[in-house]
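Q: We require from you a single protein entry containing the residue sequence and its fold in C-alpha cell form, and nothing else.
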Amino acid sequence: MTASDDLNAAPTVRSDSDGTRPRTPLWLAVTLAVLFGLFYAYDVFEALGNLIGISDFANQLDASINGFGWVLLVLGLVLPLVLFAIAFSLGRNRGPLAQIAFYAVGLGLSAVLSLDIIAAFARWIPIG
C-alpha cells in the first residue's frame, strides 16, 4: 500500500454504534450543570419551605403530621436532588443538546412529582 492509496481511501465515518459521541466541552458542561442546578436548587428550597411551613402550621393548630406525611415532605425535598444527579449522569458523555434535554426532562418530572406530592398531602394526610 502506497501513500497515494491512503489519500484516495474513503474517510471513515464515526457513528454512535462504535461508542463515539459528540462530547460537550468541559466549560459548557459545567455552565449547563450550574445553570440547571440553580433551577433544581429552587425546587429544593421550595420543598424545604413546604416542609417548614406545613410543620409550623400543624404546630400552630396543636396538631401533628403522621409518618406518611413526613415521608412525602422529605421525598419532595430529596426528589429534585436525585433527578439532577440522574440527569447529570445520563448526559455526562453526550452532546450539549442531549444534556439540555436530560436536565429539562428532569425539571419537568420534578415539577410533576412535586405537584403530586402536594396534592397527595392535601388529600390523604390529615393534620390532627
